[in-house]
Design goal:
- The protein is α+β, with helices and mostly antiparallel strands.
- It has one domain: SH3 type barrels.
- It has four helices and six strands.
- It has a six-stranded antiparallel β-sheet.
- Strand 3 and strand 4 form a beta hairpin.
């Protein structure tokens, strides 16, 4: 049963892991890839009816892409003030001339490992607390005070 809990915790850490963005290795992203597209000023203005006012970047899953257009299932948008709004995967077509830059999302191994270690340590502590009747057993001291 303990292995199941540890495996479940590890799965949660990977699913909710830390992600970072890096430049695309190719000029056209593959379908299914999660990307962040920075918009040009003209793009932000032209797509305001679809994305909302003052949107400078969109994040989503590539539905279709070629050198002239990018269709994303939008997961979120970011405006000029750095505020982010979540979306539910609605598809939006973005003409290529409106994309200033593209980055791909990838798992940040270092951050996810650190998060995984913290979760594992927390599970160990909780297991000890519940198995030990709510107390942790220390290794230092004799448990008696001087003079008694």
């Amino acid at each position: 049963m303990r292995r199941v809990r540890v495996a479940s915790a590890a799965g949660l850490v990977l699913a909710a892991g830390c992600y970072s963005y890096s430049p695309l290795p190719t000029s056209v992203p593959a379908a299914g890839m999660r990307v962040r597209a920075a918009l040009t000023n003209d793009g932000a203005d032209s797509l305001a009816n679809s994305l909302g006012p003052n949107v400078v970047a969109v994040e989503g899953d590539v539905v279709r892409a070629d050198s002239s257009e990018l269709t994303l299932a939008i997961r979120g948008v970011e405006n000029t003030r750095g505020e982010r709004d979540a979306w539910r995967g609605e598809p939006v077509e973005i003409p290529g001339q409106f994309v200033k830059g593209l980055q791909q999302r990838s798992l940040a191994v270092g951050g996810t490992s650190l998060l995984g270690g913290a979760v594992a340590a927390g599970l160990v502590v909780l297991t000890q607390v519940f198995r030990g009747g709510g107390t942790l057993q220390g290794t230092g001291g004799s448990g008696t005070s001087a003079g008694h």
